[in-house]
Amino acid sequence: MDCAGGPDEERSQVDISYPPETETFRTEVRAFLAGTLPPDWKGIGALDEEAAWAFARDWRGLLAERRYLSLTWPERYGGRGLTKLHQVVLMEELALAGVPFGLPQDTFGVKMLANTLLRWGTEEQKRRFLPRILSGEDTWCQGYSEPDAGSDLASLKTRAVPEGDTWVIDGQKVWTSGAHHSDWIFVLARTNRDASPHRGISFLLVPLDQPGVEVRPFRMMSGQLHFNEVFFSSARTRADLVVGGVDNGWTVAQSLLGVERGEEAATNPILFKAEVERLVELARLYGKDQDPVIRQRIAWCWSKVEIMRYLGYRILTGWLKGADPGPESSIAKLYWSEYHTKVTDLAMDIMGLHAQVPVGRPPLRTYRTDDPGAANSSASWSTTYLIARSGTIYAGTSQVQRNILAEKVLGLPREPRAAAG
Ligand SMILES: Cc1cc2nc3c(=O)[nH]c(=O)nc-3n(C[C@H](O)[C@H](O)[C@H](O)COP(=O)(O)OP(=O)(O)OC[C@H]3O[C@@H](n4cnc5c(N)ncnc54)[C@H](O)[C@@H]3O)c2cc1C
User: Fold this and answer.
1) How far is CA 265 from the centre of its chain?
2) Is the pLDDT of residue 7 over 50?
3) Ligand 1: which of 175, 218, 366 to mutate, most ligand atoms within 8 Å of CB?
4) Is 52's pLDDT higher than 50?
5) Whose C-alpha in 56, 84, 191, 283 is 20 to 30 A from the C-alpha of 415?
6) Which residues are catalytic?
7) In terms of Cα–Cα distance, which of 76, 77, 87 is closest to 29?
8) pLDDT of the residue at 15
9) CA dist list (Å): 353 to 23, 143, 347, 358, 362
10) Which residues lie across from 113 on neighbouring strands?
């Protein structure tokens, strides 16, 4: 299919025919799902909270055992040595079946850190950490943001100073998802104050269970206990636990941010389409399905998700050709996160005052939509409504994505930046 119209003709060609080897793998995954899930399976969202957590933990064990969690890692580190397109196929099939890819904290260990170690880690780091990430023995969190360094991450102030065979770390991180139940944190710390802001940063692996680290959880407006402040007061980590070289942390950190693009391109349209289908049911449930304005707004949501699907195809086409996704990732991030605030607004309007009295099972997810199979409870929608606001902030705010698009795609002048120092 030709989806012409963009500035770059090559990028705008959409051809989403997967190569035969990934289709063979799809058959394997489908057989595994059919043989493992109960015949009346509707998706993890259909289970109550306790049963859903129990299922998620057992399910993670099964995925690890089959090395689905480590599909693209080389075999010598416990993986299957398959391609990132196999990974996309796996994620598609899991999303369609309504089952998760691991537990929430696997986002940081399996998806972010493992891929980063594979690219930048020393042999010793890979052999030490990868098997423990796969088994779930070590859980990880991400220590990037600080009180005065979010969008402008390069202004981070946490410092690491070498002392004998250790780094001594002082400073504060904030918004650290899941630190309260993690064993380790990957930290961006300033290791060279004389270098320019982007150059003097290192990517360090730091154990959380030590006297120099204090983790203080705080609640999100959705009511979930998810975030933390993490304080380092002469915390220590071994000198060799720097990834990608001393003062090279900015490059390492940037590569980590790109690892999820292809997977999201494949799974977002599936999850968001299921959500629109739940929205249609919600309108029926509240007797609003004949309301012409509500109908029009639902149709708008449906067409937005269709466009999301084509955007996803465009990114995947690039992947099939081996190209870097480039600025499409900012288009996709901006698109789904802004869209999600609108679709959840609509759910709140459909429920009216009922939305103010959340009843039923809240979503287990902190990111994107409720789980596939979720019932149309007011707790599900009103929590997802609040969570949707955060989608326009994490992994780069909407304003920052617009800046990237303005400068890198539209070629507009760079916005003024503060002078160094
Ligand atoms: C759900 C969630 C989970 C998170 N998890 C983690 C985590 O695990 N680890 C971690 O390190 N961080 C995490 N974060 C933090 C996240 O990365 C930051 O919130 C984000 O980078 C924005 O930084 P900030 O909050 O400091 O806002 P700021 O950067 O201070 O931005 C404030 C406002 O100013 C705008 N703005 C900033 N710069 C510009 C500009 N140049 N042009 C135009 N507008 C601008 C922003 O868009 C925003 O509206 C998480 C955030 C959320 C919401």
Assistant:
1) 12
2) no
3) 175
4) yes
5) 191
6) 260
7) 87
8) 67
9) 47, 39, 11, 10, 17
10) none
Q: Which H helix or E strand runs over 402?
A: helix 398-404
Provide the token pair at 410. 């539209």
Asked if pLDDT for residue 9 goes beyond 60, the answer is no
Average pLDDT over residues 338-342: 97
pTM (global) more than 0.85: yes
Give yes or no for a contact between 68 and 90, defined as CB atoms under 8 angstroms apart: yes
Q: CA 24 to CA 27: how far, in whole Å? A: 5
Closest by CA to 288, choosing from 349, 358, 341, 340, is 349
What is the rounded average pLDDT of the residues 232-237? 98
| Nearest atom, ligand 1, residue 152 CA | 29
Strand pairing class (213-219; 159-163): unpaired
Angle formed by the axes of helices 20-36 and 84-97, nearest 10°: 30
DSSP string, 311-372: HHHHHHHHHHTT---TTHHHHHHHHHHHHHHHHHHHHHHHHGGGGGS--SPPPS-SSSSPPT
Which atom of ligand 1 is nearest the CA belonging to 147?
A: 26
Determine the Cα–Cα distance for residues 102 and 100; give it in Å rounded to an integer. 6
Q: Between 163 and 316, whose confidence is greater?
A: 163
Confidence (pLDDT) at 315: 83
pLDDT in tens, 349-404: 999 999 999 898 888 887 889 998 898 899 999 999 999 999 999 989 999 999 99
Q: Is 142 in the pocket of ligand 1 (CB under 6 A)?
A: yes
Q: How far is CA 357 from CA 14, 48, 351, 378, in A?
A: 45, 19, 10, 7
On whether the CB atoms of residues 71 and 93 are closer than 8 A, the answer is: no
- Reported as a pLDDT band with limits 50, 70 and 90, residue 324 is low
